[in-house]
Amino acid sequence: MSYISYRHFNGRTIAFTEDNVEVKKLFLQRVPFKMRTETLQTYFSYFGKVLHVELIEKPRKKKFKFGYVLFESSRDAADVLLKEMHLINDRLIKLEPYHSWGQPAVENVEPIQEGSPIRKLNDDCLYRIYRYLSLTDQLNLARALKRCPPLYSSINLGTFKSISLWDMHDFFVLFGYKLNQIVGQIPRNRYRRLIEFVSTHCHNLRVLRITNSPLTVSNTYKLVGHLHQLQELKLSNCDLIDDCLPSLTGLHKLKKLDLCYNDMLTGLLMDKLPSSIESLNLLYCIDVESMFLPRICSALPQLKELGIRALLTEHTNVFQELANGHCCDKLETITLQTEASFDLQFHLEYLAKLPGLKKLIMYERPTLMLLQWLVAHKSEQLIHLENNSRISLDAQQMALIAQLNALRILALPNNIDIDDDVMAKLCNLQHLEEIHLQGCKKITDQAVLRLLLSCSKLHVLHLERCRLLSGQLIHRIIDELRELCRLQLNCRQLPVKLYFFGAKFNDFMLKHSDVRAASDMVDIELTRCPYW
């Protein structure tokens, strides 16, 4: 129910909406289907003069109708609102103030006159004026001017937390058809209306990313049921259940679907998802059962990216089925979260037999057998490997990784056992372009320099929290790169991006202006490490 306030005038009360609009029009709910407008007209006439009563039937709902009643006097409308219960023919009728934008005081507002100077401005000048105004002032001007350029192509839902319902409604009426992207968390006081406005006015929406906003089955249907142009949908931590998923079936243009952190999903109805999906993220959906994975992949023939948490179930040969069943031949990227003790039981080595595999991201240490199979089957195809486990890889595992010749991106953060000997083996990766070594505490300046010079395409190095590195490494890299350029032997993209973290490098950059002057050779960013 909309917020209303009451004020006293000459012994009578007048109701106002949250936008300070005088209430004369009331919204009627749960009107019995057989009740007639004449009955309502007679009842409400006891409170004052009624200008109009209208009832509307809801499609597919034959039990109740809804509608509105319009009073001539706002004082009479306030008397109706102040009465706690309305029994008409022994049936309880619910009512509340109609929306601000539907009240007579708003509908009768005079627009800015045609001869006004602002009406003579061209679209470009008008656009510049609008951009100087706050959202509320933009909407106020648009209401009076009846003319507004397309100011918004994207919006964060947090914007609507502090504006009125009227402003929110008019925003979607004015700009909804132009919105390509909506992101953010639905404000708690705007749930029902935001879902309604997005569904009604944003039919051209391409990207919808909603987080931390619980959605019922009904609200999920209302939200996405009419957004047939959606190409990317994220509903993260929205308390979705399996019965929410059929609401996505009609999204035939959907390419990317992110359902992470919905821990009540089991995977039971995921074969009902649109077959157009190319990317599916189910990370941290802890109740998704691995036994459904082959069926899900079979229903998504275009699937190229998959994020999944593998759980221990009776069905532990799921990855063997994926590889041998050819149900995901286009799958190129897998992000996998498993329990370390379950890796062997899941036969993760069969991931290496997926025909399209190019990118593998793991949150637990890869098994030795998986790495052996990757070397055997994907050494010339796998271009991206990440191991985000806190457990370091041993020398045997690192030796196998060094044999993945096609790698372009390698991420091995927090591997405390990576030393100069291991770094020397990585020098064999001649296609390497980017490496992440955050928190690898044993690597030295010499090892990093040797890796950079050996891998002629390497141009991005994440070296945050590598304790043995010094500022002199930066000088040595600059000197070597300049020499390669002088000899016309440089093959890598310049400048080389170097990422460091810590007071030692802050002080170094402050004291050595010559490093900042070498921006054509190195681009240094002092940043917080993403792997804490």
Number of helices: 17
Helix content: 25-40%
* Fraction in beta strands: 15-25%
Name the shape in a single word. elongated
The H-level CATH homologous superfamily of the domain at 4-107, spelled out, is: RRM (RNA recognition motif) domain
| Number of E strands | 23
Rg of Cα set: 31 Å
Structural commentary:
By secondary structure, the chain is α/β, with parallel strands linked by helices. It has a domain of 104 residues: RRM (RNA recognition motif) domain (Alpha-Beta Plaits, 2-Layer Sandwich). The protein is built from 17 helices and 23 strands. A 15-stranded parallel β-sheet has the order 9-10-11-12-13-14-15-16-17-18-19-20-21-22-23, covered by helices on one side. A 4-stranded antiparallel β-sheet has the order 4-5-3-8. It has a two-stranded antiparallel ribbon with strand order 1-2. The longest helix has 15 residues. The model has no long low-confidence stretch (mean pLDDT 90).
For this entry, give a set of tags.
532 residues; alpha/beta; Alpha-Beta Plaits; 4-stranded antiparallel beta sheet; 23 strands; Nucleotide-bd_a/b_plait_sf; RNA binding; Leu-rich_rpt_Cys-con_subtyp; RBD_domain_sf; RNA-binding
